[in-house]
Amino acid sequence: MNSIISVSDLTKTYSGGFTALKNVNLDIHEGEIFALLGPNGAGKTTLISIICGIVNPSSGSVRADGHDVVRDYRMAREKIGLVPQELCTDSFESVLATVKFSRGLFGKAPDPGYIERLLRQLSLWEKRNSRIMALSGGMKRRLMIAKALSHEPKILFLDEPTAGVDVELRQDMWSMVRELRESGVTVILTTHYIEEAEEMADRVGVINHGRLVLVEDKNTLIKRMGNKELLLHLAEPLERLPESLADLSLELDESGQQMVYRFDIQSGETGIANLLRKLDRAEIEFRDLQTRESSLEDIFVGLVRGEQKENDRAHGAGE
């Protein structure tokens, strides 16, 4: 696959000594939806800001559609549309005027037909003459996307695109992002809503403490790192697990009414048959059972916790 964004050995250390990014390497494929996940302060915004030419790197390089974002800033920036998390625009301006103005900032010739199609796609055409102050929060979010797409970029960054919007509008925006991808736009989004990445992304990158912990196809990641849980709802509550079950990956919840058995979905032998035999010998009856597969959120939390433990061990060894 062609890489539309290439990040090589990227490091950013601020004047106060804080290192926000540490030797990041990343290739984003043309035409994909890429989700960048990480806790607050992980380095997501710094990485986006460097790619978009807002912040200069301390070392390393970034190319956007073949253009170096530092040496060839104007050409690189022309390929990129950025929707920031903050809703920052002139409240007294009309929707149509502000989108036209954004297009002009990139030196693009007026194209009323394109602007109309864009506003219609974003359900903003009926509001084209409205002042921005009169728009709802969701409409303002759509307007920010229209501004970012006004100069017809090949790459679109969405920083927390559905923050503060209701569930219905979130679904609409997911649909819109898919349409953008189908039209050839590469979409990179950061999000705190794990279900957003699970719903939309082709690939997922996890960043923590300035390091890119993992980059992988979403479905492959869930399949490779996911576990399944077998939930057994007991006919009678237990105070504790019998000794005969101590060697199993089994937990009893606080109520004593449910047991959880975890197993690797990649393993040829799940151990469920052995579990059921031991339950029968221990005369433990259950009235229902169900399985649950790990979600992307489960995997994300596990990766971040694992990274934190590694950092803690490293700091401890250095003391």
Automatic annotation (TrEMBL):
Cite the entry's keywords alphabetically. Answer: ATP-binding, Coiled coil, Nucleotide-binding, Transport
* All residue ranges annotated as the ABC transporter domain in the record: 5-234
Organism domain of life: Bacteria
GO MF terms listed in the record are:
ATP binding
One of the Pfam families matching this protein, by short name: ABC_tran
Instruction: Output the InterPro entries linked to this UniProt entry.
Output: AAA+_ATPase, ABC_transporter-like_ATP-bd, ABC_transporter-like_CS, ABC_transporter_ATP-binding, P-loop_NTPase
Q: Which SMART domains match?
A: AAA
Where are the coiled-coil regions? 272-299
PANTHER family of this UniProt entry?
Answer: ABC TRANSPORTER ATP-BINDING PROTEIN
This one is known as ABC transporter ATP-binding protein
